[in-house]
Design goal:
The structure holds two protein chains of two kinds. Chain A is built from 13 helices and 14 strands. By secondary structure, chain A is an alpha+beta fold. In chain A, a hairpin with a 6-residue loop joins strand 8 and strand 9. In chain A, helix 4 packs across helix 6. The N and C termini of chain A lie far apart (82 Å). By secondary structure, chain B is mainly beta. In chain B, strand 10 and strand 11 form a beta hairpin. Chain B starts with a helix and ends with a helix. Classes of the chains: A alpha+beta, B mainly beta. At the A-B interface, helix 10 of A face helix 1, strand 7 and strand 8 of B.
Chain lengths: 532, 281
């Protein structure tokens, strides 16, 4: 659900590209084989008419669409380098590749169309032959997972299989080798962020992870660990332990879609005083998905930050907001310079001025309306407009402070040079940024939004990974969400129910004791009557 | 939009044709081991009547400077090298010759069948592949060894056959082979972006790699006429016709020039600039 939502624009690009192709494709009208017609209508826009992965939409995508001519498929049940089974190809068509722009087609195409597609895809590569049916590997049943298994999995992950070399110690795709990873087309490719298992190609459960470990992801740097078992370095159970551990890096359930970030009231305890304050652990967090900014030119189709975790708290005087997100480095970092220039050249087809080649920091902007809107009408989500300006908090990785500002449209941001009411505390560790803003609920500045409790305050977030070539309009954006600061709970909330309960109990006691008394008296009368 | 689109439709099939033409000698994409199965083949060459080819690879022009590999992240590897290690894309020897050129018989042996030799070693030692360029016969085992005891992956990406990508997180060995002739199969380690190697796969054992003095030799060849090809990862390929006579050693010299760089093999996925090639030739 989340994945579908975060990649909506990809589907849009596919459809747009498909529309372009529809006008130039002849065979689609000729009533050719169902597979070809379906392919040319729905797939060629990205994968190209000849299956080489260079359709009109391909230039807007990273990773690029699959080139079918080499028959390299990431998600298979067969050994590394082997061809996929028909079922493997169908499964990818059905479910899509959530970590990429490839949508799932299960609900969009009929069974016949999807099965015909499988056969048609195979015609692009000479490796498929009717005489050779790829044999799936036998996967045993999942082992049980417990604390010991997870500890063993963590040890293997770090010390033996060294998954951390690419995926990083925290699994966020920030390993030592991550800046130089390239796929089979020599395009830069990210090590998966293992804390976001809902974006795993091929599924995010331990069973799926185990299969990927055993088969590898062909066409990517992810190797198969089958030889490691064959050579007796680890056992099959230990591979399961790695799978369980990787699974444990992500939340138990994928984050649900939420509209509201609840700002918890700290009535008696002090507000968290720093970004790493343990008090944050008890504050519920909301996941807000981000997508590339593709409305204003130059647009950005390769946002690194696909979502942020937001927490908020207040004590009636001050509001604190902590935003956490995965980012493989603290930009600018010379190790990532090659990555940055590659991404810029790959994602810059006809998009206005070339982006800043100089050092670009990571950035975060939290946006509120400048005034609380009356009714449902909020400012335009991209920095508002003249009629409804927005109020901004801006942080960037190469500064120690954060700025308050305002805007009346993208590119009109103006930041306050003095009278700052905003403070910031940021930390970067294990592939994760955490940035905490604090501000008095009410300030004397006219341009500052006064935060009110007990009302839904519109809030939107924007994030940039500088070394992914992001700055200015090239970045990740969210739509409007809400920040809801809890009201101080009035004393009557506690007194009234207690009183009511006591009253009820007293009444009940009264009724029951009366009834018992009546019964006792009635019984005596009956006995007396009987005796007489 | 439609102009660009038409161009792409023309270019892509042309590309495929080029790729197919450039890889002659393949037997049509069989994925099974070509050198395996059936009774053992006897060596068809009579040493008494055989001759040899020997020679060297000359290099003209300024040797390009190769980047120093930054191994700071892997102290185990860094400590194995007494001096800084360079990228091996172009290795010009101190005598002005070119190393790491794969020289092999391209034509002239079609009628003969050869026994498959025993396994050859491809070592990962000090975070480099040893050797950087390796020749094997189709079906011949390659023992891929991890002497470093830290994570390497071996990602083979041939185009004529299926590749593989296997993990070696500790000191260990893996045996693999390529069943179909292909010059060259690229190998790389994704963990260490600088590590790459090339494997030339042939249906006969006549191959050589120019060494630290630029020399190569193809010995014990049956008398006859041959086409010899020299392949270099940056400077492309050259061929020469060579006649081998009994008991003689035919001397052959290939000359690569710094200006030939645009003839280099184009990695998959990178567009070929036909105009640049046309202007250069």
């Amino acid at each position: 659900m989340m994945a579908v939502m975060t990649r909506w624009w990809a589907v849009a690009v596919c459809f747009a590209a498909a529309a372009v192709l529809a006008s130039s494709s002849l065979s689609a009208q000729d009533g050719d084989a169902l597979g070809q017609v379906t392919y040319e209508r729905w797939c060629a826009g990205c994968h190209g008419l000849d299956g080489t992965g260079d359709g009109p939409g391909a230039g807007y995508m990273l990773p690029r669409p699959r080139d079918f001519t080499q028959a390299l498929y990431q998600i298979r049940t067969t050994a590394s380098g082997e061809l996929p089974t028909d079922e493997d190809i169908l499964a990818i068509i059905d479910r899509g590749m959530p970590g990429t722009t490839m949508p799932g087609w299960e609900d969009l195409l009929s069974n016949d169309e999807r099965e015909a597609l499988v056969q048609y895809l195979k015609t692009f590569s000479r490796f498929f032959s009717p005489d050779e049916v790829p044999q799936p590997l036998e996967f045993g049943r999942a082992t049980r997972s417990d604390a010991d298994v997870l500890a063993e999995g963590e040890r293997l992950f770090r010390e033996v299989a060294d998954c951390a070399a690419c995926h990083g110690d925290g699994g966020r795709g920030d390993g030592e080798s991550s800046p130089t990873l390239a796929d089979d087309g020599d395009f830069p490719v990210r090590a998966a962020d293992l804390t976001e298992n809902w974006l795993f190609n091929g599924g995010g459960e331990a069973e799926d992870i185990y299969r990927r470990l055993l088969t590898g992801l062909d066409g990517t740097p992810m190797p198969s660990l089958a030889d490691v078992i064959t050579a007796g370095v680890i056992t099959d159970d230990q591979l399961w332990a790695i799978a369980h551990y990787v699974r444990s890096l992500a939340p138990e359930d994928p984050p649900g879609i939420t509209e509201v970030v609840r700002g918890v009231l700290f009535e008696d305890a002090p507000l968290p005083s720093s970004v790493g304050d343990e008090a944050w652990e008890s504050v519920e967090r909301a996941y807000l998905p981000l997508v590339g900014q593709i409305i204003v030119m130059p647009r950005w189709f390769d946002p690194r930050v696909d979502g942020v975790w937001v927490q908020a708290a207040h004590d009636g005087e001050t509001v604190a907001v902590r935003v956490s997100w995965s980012d493989p480095n603290n930009s600018p970092d010379p190790e990532w310079a090659d990555w940055k220039s590659q991404v810029i050249s790959l994602m810059q087809p006809k998009e206005g001025d070339p982006p800043d080649e100089g050092p670009t920091p990571d950035q975060l902007v939290v946006q509120f309306p400048m005034q609380m809107p009356e009714g449902m009408e909020r400012p335009f989500f991209l920095r508002g407009d003249n009629r409804r300006p927005v109020y901004l908090w801006q942080w960037q990785s190469d500064r120690d402070d954060a700025l308050e500002g305002e805007a009346r449209g993208l590119g009109t941001e103006a930041f306050q040079s003095e009278g700052q009411d905003l403070t910031v505390d940021a930390s970067y560790a294990d592939g994760q940024w955490q940035v905490m803003f604090t501000r008095p609920l009410v300030t004397e500045d006219e341009g500052d939004l006064d935060f009110v409790t007990g009302e839904a305050i519109p809030m939107a977030l924007f994030a940039w990974d500088g070394d992914n070539g992001e700055s200015g309009t090239r970045g990740a954006v969210s739509s409007w969400y809400f920040l809801f600061l809890e009201d101080a709970t009035p004393a009557t909330v506690y007194v009234a129910p207690t009183l009511a309960m006591m009253l009820t109990a007293a009444l009940g006691f009264l009724v029951v004791s009366r009834a018992q008394k009546r019964e006792r008296e009635g019984g005596r009368v009956e006995r007396e009557t009987a005796n007489s | 939009m439609s102009d660009r689109f038409e161009l792409r439709r023309v270019v892509a099939p042309t590309l495929m044709l080029l790729v197919m033409a450039g890889c002659g000698g393949g037997d049509g994409g069989g994925t099974s081991g070509g050198g395996e199965g059936g009774a053992a083949v006897e060596n068809p060459v009579d040493a008494a009547t055989a001759g040899n080819i020997a020679g060297s690879i000359a290099f003209e022009g300024d040797a390009p400077s190769m980047a120093v590999i930054n191994m700071a992240s892997e102290s185990v590897c860094e400590d194995k090298h007494t001096s800084p290690r360079m990228i091996e894309e172009v290795v010009v020897n101190s005598n002005g010759t070119l190393a790491n050129v794969f020289v092999y018989v391209k034509e002239g042996l079609e009628s003969l069948q050869f026994p498959t030799p025993g396994a050859v070693l491809l070592d990962q030692n000090g975070c480099v592949y040893l050797p950087h360029v390796l020749g094997v016969m189709a079906g011949q085992d390659i023992t891929i060894k991890n002497s470093d005891g830290l994570l390497h992956n071996i990602n083979a990406s041939p185009t004529e056959q299926r590749g593989f990508n296997t993990s070696q997180p500790v000191a260990m060995e893996t045996t693999r082979s390529f069943g179909t002739p292909e010059v060259m199969v690229p190998l790389r380690c994704d963990v260490h972006g600088w590590m790459n190697a090339y494997v030339g796969v042939l249906d006969h054992p006549y191959h050589s790699v120019s060494n630290g003095s630029g020399a190569f030799d193809l010995s014990t060849l049956p008398p006859g006429d041959y086409v010899i090809e020299a392949w270099h990862e940056r400077y492309g390929t050259q061929t020469q016709n060579v006649t081998v006579t009994t008991g003689e050693t035919a001397e052959v010299t290939f000359t690569f020039r710094a200006s030939m760089a645009q003839n280099a093999v184009v990695p998959l996925g990178t567009a070929i600039d036909f105009h640049a090639i046309a202007e250069a030739s």
